Amino acid sequence: MNSLKGKTAIVTGASRGIGRAIAVELAAKGCNVVVDYAGNVNAAEETVKLCQEAGASAIAVCADVSDEKAVNELISKAQENYGSIDILVNNAGITRDNLMLRMSAEDFDEVISKNLRGAFLMTKYAGKIMLKQRAGRIVNISSIVGLHGNAGQANYSASKAGIIGLTKTTALEYASRGITANVIAPGFIDTDMTSSLPEKVKESMLSRIPAGKFGQAEDIAKAVAFLASDDARYITGQVLGVDGGMGA
């Protein structure tokens, strides 16, 4: 894989879990990394430290990606520090799970806002910079439930399905300017978010994974690094499942 040395990447929701792993992997490949986080400054600073230990320059920026003003400030800080925005990874997301009949409209709207509106705003404003540069890589983190749905996750599944549609449209609009846009759809990944699930739920999920094991955040990170590299320059508008065969 070609080196990403000297490129600048923004990773949203990078204070922990998959976002942190992506930030550290890109740092190890030579990227400057802008670590976006929503509120946990200590966790974000730990990600910055790990990126620096990997040999990269990194900064943490607190920004709610569903807030248009905050997104513009995040983009501005990235430019002020590094001069360009070469890679955007839209990873930030939340869950508010419940069966549809019990799900409040507020919980539905909040998940759509954070997960889908956030990806749209980041793509719009980072995309403006990439269009001027005539180069860029956008990688959006969806989910296997965005492809297949999941009981109790109408809001989350809808947001992740929406990300796929958003990405395909981005690919069509931006391809002529040297910008690619792709989706990674993780399956069951072993993170803090999933570790709190009941054991019976985990056992049920494991039984559906042909590979016979849960994925690691690093599995997603390595897929992101590939799609962000020049090796993937002719790949755009695609959905890459990283799920151990769950979606087969």
Question: How would you briefly describe this protein structure?
Answer:
By secondary structure, the chain is of the alpha/beta class.
How does this structure look, described?
The chain contains 9 helices and 9 strands. It has a single domain (8-242), classed as 3-Layer(aba) Sandwich (Rossmann fold), CATH 3.40.50.720. Helix content is 48%, strand content 17%. Helix 3 (68-82) runs parallel beside helix 4 (105-133) and helix 4 runs parallel beside helix 6. The chain is globular, with a radius of gyration of 17 Å. With 248 residues, it is of the alpha/beta class. The protein has helices spanning 17-28, 41-53, 68-82, 105-133, 145-148, 154-174, 192-195, 199-206, 217-228, and strands spanning 8-11, 32-37, 58-62, 87-90, 136-141, 179-186, 189-190, 215-216, 239-242. It has a 7-stranded parallel β-sheet with strand order 3-2-1-4-5-6-9, with helices on both faces. A two-stranded parallel sheet has the order 7-8.
